[in-house]
Design goal:
- The protein is mainly alpha-helical and 164 residues long.
- The chain has 2 domains: 96 residues, Rna Polymerase Sigma Factor, Chain: A (Orthogonal Bundle), CATH 1.10.1740; 67 residues, Arc Repressor Mutant, subunit A, CATH 1.10.10.10.
- The chain is 74% helix and 0% strand.
- It is built from 10 helices and no strands.
- Helix 2 runs antiparallel to helix 3, helix 2 packs across helix 4 and helix 8 packs across helix 10.
- The longest helix is centred in the C-terminal third of the chain and has 21 residues.
- The chain is globular, with a radius of gyration of 17 Å.
- The termini are far apart.
Amino acid sequence: MDNQSLRTTDSVDEIIKNYSSMVFRIAYSRTKNKYDADDVMQNVFMRYIRKERHFESEEHRKAWFIRTTINCSNSFFTTSWFKNTTSFSDAAGSQIAPSDDNSSVVSAVSELPKNMRSMIYLFYYEEYSVKKIAEILGKSESAVKTQLFRARGLLKKKFEEEDL
């Protein structure tokens, strides 16, 4: 399959349908706010639409969406809008609530530092290998392994404290 065919065979609507939940989950795991995650998701898809991207494979496209979502999430916190305003959802306390069956896990993961949340998400939810995570995040494999080990330790400690 050549590069051009990957761009033209999938309509933008199909791409959004296929990747929106993944992009939202990554953005939400980093922003911890539904509305901010929606803004980040919109920015990611606008970047995709504005520039004609050519991907070697679906895996390459997926990696681009992951990396771009992480970058847009990080950039979101440096915008003047974020620095100078309080989000309505923060003021109203209307954060989205995790489902009851896994709320303690989601809550514990959301308390991890951003870099650890991203690695946990990529490893457990997207089922990427340590090697692939290292490529996506631009880190060494040993750094990814270390961060995953530390994240698991923090989660274990959190669950032991709460007797889960």
